[in-house]
Predict the structure of Dipeptidase.
Amino acid sequence: MDMQKLDDYFKTNRQEHLEELKAFLRIPSISSLTEHQKDIQKGAEWLKKSLEKAGLENARIDETPGHPVVYADWLHAEGKPTVLVYGHYDVQPVDPLHLWETPPFDPHVRDNKLYARGASDDKGQTFMHIKAVEALLQLNGELPVNIKFIIEGEEEIGSPNLPLYVEQNQDQLKADVIVISDTGMQGPGRPAVCYGLRGLAGIQIDVKGPKGDLHSGLYGGAVQNPLHAIAEILASFRDKEGVIQVDGFYDDVLPVSDEEREEFAALEFDLEQEKRDLGIEEDFGEKGYSFVERTWIRPTLEVNGITGGFSGEGIKTVLPSEASSKITCRLVPNQDPDDIIAKLRAHVEAHKPAGVTVNITDFDKGKPFLTPYDHPAIQAAGRSYEKVYQVPTAFTRMGGSVPIVAAFDEILGLPVVLMGFGLASENFHAPNEHFHLENFDKGLRVISDYLFEAANLKK
Amino acid sequence: MDMQKLDDYFKTNRQEHLEELKAFLRIPSISSLTEHQKDIQKGAEWLKKSLEKAGLENARIDETPGHPVVYADWLHAEGKPTVLVYGHYDVQPVDPLHLWETPPFDPHVRDNKLYARGASDDKGQTFMHIKAVEALLQLNGELPVNIKFIIEGEEEIGSPNLPLYVEQNQDQLKADVIVISDTGMQGPGRPAVCYGLRGLAGIQIDVKGPKGDLHSGLYGGAVQNPLHAIAEILASFRDKEGVIQVDGFYDDVLPVSDEEREEFAALEFDLEQEKRDLGIEEDFGEKGYSFVERTWIRPTLEVNGITGGFSGEGIKTVLPSEASSKITCRLVPNQDPDDIIAKLRAHVEAHKPAGVTVNITDFDKGKPFLTPYDHPAIQAAGRSYEKVYQVPTAFTRMGGSVPIVAAFDEILGLPVVLMGFGLASENFHAPNEHFHLENFDKGLRVISDYLFEAANLKK
């Protein structure tokens, strides 16, 4: 198609597109907090209308035991491949709220960046796919491929209901390739297609001591303190270099070829700049692996939160009744989340301090994912990026998890193409999340082009 | 005097006394929280009026750089000794609020126990001294001794301004004995005079990592996590049996004589009952010391709180920017709080994990305290208890700290008598603090009798 025409269309409609996106971002659809249940519903309804407005058909909100899935399609490209677009309309919590420069659900553009929770992860990126379809239908009256959208509301809580939904709707979700924009680029102006993601295994550890909080002066020294107990457990998980001490943790880690590691080493990664960006004096982690490798090809165990005792202003000499901690592991092929959680349980059991009871609850689970980076669907995405960004595309892995990716791979048996437009500096999951609008503008063109590229894929 | 007359007086006025005490307890005078500044002032004003109503003279509120001290006296027992009564009108914070059966500042009597924050520690016990003086002045028109009250508003935050106040008012505070009711009895119906208290040394540890919260998937494994770092530091403080691993921590601990330890062993202490009361399966602590000894004659290090990362419902895969913890040590003679804090700092410096900065702030400090248990002022207190409770008085030490006791000892050079009426089960510093009214009723009589006993002390 005439890319100039497409370009003009996106320029003409830019302000309207941004206003629409802001409306989407104003909905505080935090999936992990029950008080936002209604906002989740609002998010799904907003999306359904947006898909219909774009010209998609059969738009509907499918209930699940958790948050609903939004579906829509356009299936009039007879004999052509079908692209399944996945995204999510739920977002992360926003605390600590006081660190946001503007409120998380009151979107603001500053310095060509759109600030709001979800701006990048993943409302902004999902929205681009809708607008690309709308553009092509407006300009051409048709799409070069068949297309299906499946947009869920539970990604940030580990997509507990989507695998069953996908299994139950296998026929309807039949496609030739899955496209997901929920990952990042290599850096500003440096497009990347991601062919591997880490998996996830999360637990909560609850330590219980005396039945009520005690005065630490009267009982300290004679009654085990749950805070000491949890500190001991947490400290036992890793050595001083971050090597995980859980028995058998690394057993199933697939070796990574020298060739692949050489490709990672060749990426323009500026460690000193990264450290300045993060505000750290020194990086950290397993000896023998680079910063990139530690986050892409090595599994991790990170404490995400600890609570217990008094945390207000001043001092309170309490020996608290309980303490708890949330932990998530990132997994690499071929680690299995259930196996890792069993190993974490065994570790805690073996390291349980005296005088307390310890309870472990499973949280999120997601398998790691890997597609050969020379797959045609992946290479086609690389070409679309190059046309717009005018630089070679990097083929990368990523440290984060999109748990559903492995499920798509397993249930539908399709290649998954991760075309991300986020930047690592965009604070997703943290205060002041934002989205660089340069990548919003370019991304609309990349996605539109990819639909033409996908038309040539083998059915 | 005629003790029957006194008894009748307390019986007749019981309801009125309780209503007055409830009014005192309704003032949320939490010293550690700045938002309660006005309530502290209210508490001081209420006390001044109550002292005046009792017949005390020269009542006044003395400002300090922190919360005010309330003073009053009655000095008409010419040639007789002077008793200095110390108490505090500030209280501990009340969180977690949801664990209170009735609101902390809405006093309720259930099962002859008065429930409210401060009911036992220390508003209830301080109030008894005021009412004992009021009773004697009402019945006899005079007291058998001279008496001075000094009631502070910063005990729960370590009495930062009282030592200087005492030093600057040495002449005015001249006395022959100091009486403090801010400790506990041996058990229900088992009076105790305490002759030793542990000291206190508190610090806060703040660990800082990256400048903002990070996504644990994207950065986990390559950036040090402040929560892991703080867990490592905290776990390094003690071994699995609670023996403190800080270099030189036990250096200045005075040996305790076999005779004294035999007396402790002879106390009726029921470990199994204690464990049931506390809801623990097993006790904990240094080998070679009993439960009682671990809390009375051995120093401790207890974590009072840890915060950092996400603690809401569900999961948030964050690698947080910071983590912090509050810690207090209980000290025994002759450990020095400043020396111990220096040793804690050195320990943290030596155990600082890679990749983070660690900052330590001093908190409360209080020296340990010890008076010979055969001192006449102590023995006299034992007799007053026995007359009312009709059982022998135990002479004990205590695990808690009343930091000002050591300062009184040091600055005024007076014997300190700790006549407590609390019970260990009364949840002070915890939800559902209460005061057994049996000890309120008996305590009024013990305190009144002690003023007659004190009249015979050598001036």
Notes: The domain at 3-197+368-454 of chain A is CATH 3.40.630.10 (Aminopeptidase).
